[in-house]
């Protein structure tokens, strides 16, 4: 169905004449406006084609996208986020001729046997499990389904399942190398009190990297603060009461640690980065810590999950037989929360 110029004009808040000029490749329209109109039309046409494809294509079965919740911590943080991801995943799955089923399984309140029975009843052909909170033994009931399974944010060595992961070790290496380069050696790692896969990897990497950079034994430089912002804030206040003399930098394990510890530091009027430097892991909303332009180690999430689902589809089709482990590298986004001690010590 052709998209009408009046409809485009109304949606974009511009005149129908301008839309007509852009669509007919005539002069009189700025490059920015022309591109805006063309992008809008392309997006609309893609959506129309997607709907048409869904109506005409025979469904070959169901692909399940399962968010496995063991203690609820990760679920609470990602509330409201899955919708865009599920929409993208639905598009990828539908183009392959399948339908998607997004499920949240909460171990404490739901029946695993009911979930597995639903998988059989719905003709689930493959499952992508967001498994950050899962333990090694939790995967075995799913293996009885005899369908391809791809895992996100975890590794199940004995089961031999394909995994898509954040490269936590590389991210922590970036943290420590950056801080050492800036002249820091007495670095403390502020951790949560839950032991999910990503966090355990980051802690182990911190100890290894500190030893590699000759910054001493870091096993006693990991301070566990809590698993929600208020608990972290309270624990950080107590830590500051004890005194952090000698510590010049903190590595913040997660966004929850960044928010709680940052709040306590700001309350004490500790100058960031002059008094103490900070590097966080995982992104924060821009206005989360007023006055702190936080240097961050950032992983990729949506692209990684989508790549895992596309890999699962290839697995269902029988195109991938090798067991793979895919690590997505991190990026260091430099803010203004790290003081360059080396600038004053060595120059």
Strand content: 15-25%
Distance between the termini: 68 Å
Helix content: 40-55%
Could you state the order of secondary-structure elements as H and E?
A: HHHEHHEHEHEEHEHEHEHEEHEEH
**What Rg do the Cα atoms give?**
25 Å
Low-confidence stretches: none
Count of individual helical segments? 13
> In total, how many beta strands?
12
> Mind describing the biggest β-sheet?
6 strands, parallel
How does the helix and strand content classify structurally?
Answer: alpha/beta
Shape: globular
Q: Averaged pLDDT, please? A: 87
Q: Largest sheet, order of strands side by side?
A: 2-1-3-4-5-11
Plain-language structure description:
The protein is of the alpha/beta class and 347 residues long. The chain is 44% helix and 18% strand. It contains 13 helices and twelve strands. It has helices at 5-12, 16-23, 31-56, 73-77, 82-95, 112-121, 140-143, 168-181, 197-212, 229-242, 255-267, 302-316, 342-345, and strands at 62-69, 99-106, 124-130, 149-152, 162-166, 187-192, 222-226, 249-252, 277-281, 295-298, 325-328, 331-333. The chain has a six-stranded parallel beta sheet with strand order 2-1-3-4-5-11, with helices on both faces. A six-stranded mixed beta sheet has the order 7-6-8-9-10-12, with helices on both faces. α11 links the parallel β8 and β9. α8 runs parallel beside α9 (197-212). The longest helix is centred in the N-terminal third of the chain and has 26 residues, at 31-56. The radius of gyration is 25 Å and the shape is globular. The relative contact order is 0.11.
């Amino acid at each position: 169905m052709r998209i009408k110029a009046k409809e485009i004009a109304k949606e974009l808040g511009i005149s129908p004449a301008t839309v007509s000029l852009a669509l007919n490749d005539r002069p009189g329209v700025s490059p920015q406006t022309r591109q805006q109109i063309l992008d809008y039309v392309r997006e609309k046409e893609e959506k129309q084609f997607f709907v048409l494809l869904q109506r005409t294509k025979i469904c070959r079965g169901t692909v399940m996208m399962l968010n496995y919740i063991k203690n609820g911590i990760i679920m609470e943080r990602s509330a409201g986020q899955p919708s865009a991801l599920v929409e993208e995943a639905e598009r990828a799955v539908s183009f392959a001729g399948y339908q998607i089923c997004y499920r949240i399984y909460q171990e404490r309140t739901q029946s695993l046997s009911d979930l597995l029975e639903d998988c059989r009843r719905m003709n689930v052909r493959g499952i992508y499990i967001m498994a950050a909170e899962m333990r090694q033994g939790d995967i075995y009931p799913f293996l009885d389904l005899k369908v391809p399974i791809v895992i996100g944010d975890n590794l199940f060595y004995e089961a031999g399942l394909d995994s898509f992961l954040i490269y936590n070790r590389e991210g922590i290496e970036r943290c420590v190398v950056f801080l050492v380069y800036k002249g820091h050696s007495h670095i403390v790692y502020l951790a949560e009190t839950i032991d999910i896969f990503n966090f355990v990897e980051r802690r182990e990497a911190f100890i290894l990297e500190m030893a590699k950079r000759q910054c001493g034994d870091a096993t006693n430089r990991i301070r566990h603060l809590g698993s929600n912002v208020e608990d972290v804030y309270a624990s950080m206040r107590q830590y500051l009461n004890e005194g952090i003399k000698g510590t010049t930098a903190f590595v913040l394990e997660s966004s929850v640690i960044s928010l709680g510890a940052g709040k306590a530091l700001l309350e004490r009027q500790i100058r960031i980065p002059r008094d103490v430097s900070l590097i966080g892991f995982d992104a924060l909303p821009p206005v989360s810590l007023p006055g702190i332009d936080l240097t961050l180690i950032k992983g990729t999430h949506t692209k990684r999950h989508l790549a895992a689902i596309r890999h699962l589809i290839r697995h269902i089709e029988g195109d991938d037989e090798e067991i793979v482990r895919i690590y997505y590298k991190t990026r260091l986004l430099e803010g203004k929360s790290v003081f360059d001690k080396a600038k004053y010590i060595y120059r």
